[in-house]
Amino acid sequence: MFKTARKALLALLFAGLAGPLFAADLPEPIVEEAPPQAVYEQPVEVGGWYIRGDIDYHKSTVRGIDYMTYTVDPCNCTVTPGTRSFDFGKLKGGFSLGAGVGYKINDHFRTDLTADYWFKSNFNGGTSDINGTSTEVSKMSALLLLANAYVDLGTYHGITPYVGAGIGGARVKWDDVYDPNTTEFNPGRSSWRFAYGLMAGASYCLTDKIILDAGYRFSHIQGGRMFDWNITSSGPGFDRGINTHEVRGGLRYQFGGNNGCAAPVVAYQPEPEPIYTK
């Protein structure tokens, strides 16, 4: 009995001493660092409606002016019409205000409808005949309506260059054409004409809704009636068309969708659990 008890006590002592010794020899578990969190940007859908406002300074060139004259044939007393041209005709620079509504289709394409009112520009011209020369003055204003399409060429350091083209019409209004040195004048005319424009410029995001736009536009307005006949038997007169160079600046406000200025949405994968290995 005592031998059995002694053996049991020795067994317990051996187990108590051997446990720490064997535990010291076992390798400790290694905790591997979790891989870095994957960060990715969710794509932002670009597109939506916008409105715009513009102001410009423009310089227009009249391509030439023709007018009718009438002479009496002394042989049979008939009136013979003829055509004469202004010796020169120049328009001074002027300003315009414009507005429009458009739709941005994607990162690279957008369209809009614009209306620009050209304030009056002073006109100075001159004619000559057998009786001498005369000075002709007037003023011209116009309402230009265009349907436009643009290609945005990518964004570089926050600046997006673009090119575009537009087609539409213009209502050109000429005031009375008169010689300030006499009482002669010809009533001015208003008429709708075909017009087109070619644009280039760049835009810059001021906020996620507002874009600053600056650029150049060349516009051409087809020729048409400039003034009517008067009692001195001259007229009507026709201008051969108007070419205009415009320096433009304005703002676009995106009130629907995204104009491409909003910061991309950053998303994170869930943090993984630590991995333990032996």
From TrEMBL:
- What is the originating organism of this protein? Mesorhizobium ciceri
Q: Which segments constitute the Outer membrane protein beta-barrel domain?
A: 45-255
Endpoints of the signal sequence: 1-23
- Lineage of origin: Bacteria, Pseudomonadati, Pseudomonadota, Alphaproteobacteria, Hyphomicrobiales
Matching entries from Pfam families are given as: OMP_b-brl (PF13505)
Which InterPro entries does the entry mention?
Beta-barrel_OMP, OMP/PagP_B-barrel
Q: What is this protein called?
A: Porin family protein
The alphabetical list of record keywords is: Signal
